[in-house]
Amino acid sequence: MSEASTRAPAVLPARRPRGGVLRGAARGFAERAWLVAAAAVLWELVTRAVDETYFPPPTTIFRALHELWFGGPAAHLFLTDKAMDDFSTSLGHLFVGWAAAGAAGIAAGAAIGRSAVLRDLLSPVLEFLRAVPPPTLVPFFIMVFQLGATMQVVTIAFGVVWPVLLNTADGVRTVEPLQLDTARVFGVGPVRRIVTIILPAAAPKIFAGLRVALSFALILMVLSELVGSTAGIGSELIGAQRSFELPRMWAGIVMLGILGLLFNAVFMLLERRLLAWHTGARRLES
């Protein structure tokens, strides 16, 4: 009897039923939500006891949130007209700038990571540009692009391209040389090697860079709207601050925190699904 016939069959892990997955997700959410609820209750009690104008209680802040953005009809998902205007403006600029920076960062990072000549030539310039804080360039972007959507998108794209570019360059440098040598032996062309071998191998680091860039994009979205903008969450924030409407100002801050939490959760879910093959491959190797 051959060795292959006596080998025990591989046991595949049982797939969890969909109901079990949903129950597990709900249980995980409940285990984490209690801390948020406890913090909100403590915040409410302390702010009402102190009675400080600059720190309104959560109930006042959420009332302002409802009036500003979530007091609309059910047909519009309870979004007000102002919410439609502010969210479409802010999120439109955010995702356009993030997507443009992601595409440019992946392309430039792949080229720099695979070319020692480009890396040595461009490294000082890239390190110089990366060290320049994006807020200091806002006056320059205003002079070049004028106030408006273009200036805001460019501000976001410039600030968030670096995590994607550097992570991509680092990821493509760590591709196994054996994989590339095997591809060359089988006649795989340079473009196909990049698409089918190099970028998939670097995908975990690329996704890590995109995730960091998304959080930076949210910050720069607000920053770009603080100057000369008439719509958007940042514009609402600065307007509330200037008119000393503190509940509205805090409502904008809380809204940004909620958006950051949602962006991170959705991105992690997409990353887990899109990189499931990579996780499975690592388990097989181990």
UniProtKB/TrEMBL annotation:
Keywords for the protein's UniProt record, in alphabetical order: Cell membrane, Membrane, Transmembrane, Transmembrane helix, Transport
Membrane topology: Multi-pass membrane protein
Primary site of residence: membrane
One family name in Pfam for this protein: BPD_transp_1
Cell location: Cell membrane
Domain ABC transmembrane type-1 intervals: 87-271
Protein name: ABC transporter permease
Organism, scientific name: Actinomadura chokoriensis
